[in-house]
């Protein structure tokens, strides 16, 4: 049987089998692991490509945006070099938060996201940046090109969520949100993560 290209006989691995996006680092693909309705922290299983339950969230805080990663990115020494205080990359794909006016309540979806900025996150000495983006052609957020175009309260919620989502009562948190950065620096982080991926895994 002949199938039209592109046709995948098997399910592509979300990290390695999908493209980084239509026009990276401006317009990227986001593979969504967690929605704003989830109280469980899901994470891609790096071996199989399926979602794995990482942990139930201990706090009452819910993700303020869609949360996932950019395919074919890898946080290593180039990403760490752009951070304020991280010593190394975290060895994961580059995380991305996507704002959407219309609720998207399903994970394991792929969408086009326009980069507007990011959070410089240091997790125990590791660069764990969170790219901030808006859903392409979104009726409310689609014209945003920088974090300055977004309401400050949305950025505040993102900072609070990531500043607290790993906190455990009685234990000191090793995660800090160092700063919020804009569109131009976010593009450098995405490019660095793509280069780190190429060096680690090839084209």
Structure description:
There is one protein chain. The relative contact order is 0.20. The protein has one domain (27-201): Inorganic Pyrophosphatase. It is built from three helices and ten strands. The strands form two sheets. A five-stranded mixed barrel has the order 1-4-6-9-7. It has a two-stranded antiparallel sheet with strand order 2-3. By secondary structure, the protein is α+β, with helices and mostly antiparallel strands. The protein has helices at 77-81, 152-164, 183-201, and strands at 27-34, 40-44, 51-56, 66-69, 88-89, 95-99, 110-123, 126-127, 130-135, 175-181. β7 (110-123) and β8 (126-127) form a beta hairpin.
Q: If classified by CATH, what would the architecture be?
A: Alpha-Beta Complex
Distance between the ends: 29 Å
What is the topology, as strand order, of the major beta sheet? 1-4-6-9-7
Class from helix and strand fractions: alpha+beta
| Rg calculated over all Cα atoms | 16 Å
Instruction: State the CATH topology.
Output: Inorganic Pyrophosphatase
The succession of helices and strands, N to C, reads: EEEEHEEEEEHEH
| DSSP, total strands | 10
Q: In the CATH hierarchy, what is the class? A: Alpha Beta
Query: What's the domain count?
Result: 1
CATH superfamily: Inorganic pyrophosphatase
Largest sheet: 5 strands, mixed, barrel
Q: Helicity range of the residues? A: 10-25%
């Amino acid at each position: 049987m002949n199938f039209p290209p592109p046709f995948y006989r098997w399910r592509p691995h979300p990290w390695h089998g999908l493209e980084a996006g239509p026009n990276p680092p401006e317009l990227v693909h986001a593979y969504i692991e967690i929605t704003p309705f989830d109280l469980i922290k899901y994470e891609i299983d790096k071996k199989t490509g399926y979602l794995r339950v990482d942990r139930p969230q201990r706090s009452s805080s819910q993700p303020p945006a869609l949360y996932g990663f950019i395919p074919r990115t890898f946080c290593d020494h180039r990403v760490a070099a752009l951070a304020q205080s991280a010593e190394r990359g975290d060895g994961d794909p580059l995380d991305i938060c996507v704002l959407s006016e219309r609720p998207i309540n399903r994970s394991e979806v792929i969408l086009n996201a326009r980069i507007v900025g990011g959070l410089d996150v240091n997790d125990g000495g590791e660069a764990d940046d969170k790219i901030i983006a808006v859903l392409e052609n979104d009726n409310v957020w689609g014209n945003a090109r920088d974090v300055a175009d977004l309401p400050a309260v949305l950025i505040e919620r993102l900072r609070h969520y990531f500043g607290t989502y790993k906190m455990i009562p009685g234990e000191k948190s090793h995660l800090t949100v160092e700063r919020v950065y804009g569109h131009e620096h976010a593009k450098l982080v995405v490019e660095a993560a793509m280069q780190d991926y190429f060096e680690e895994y090839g084209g």
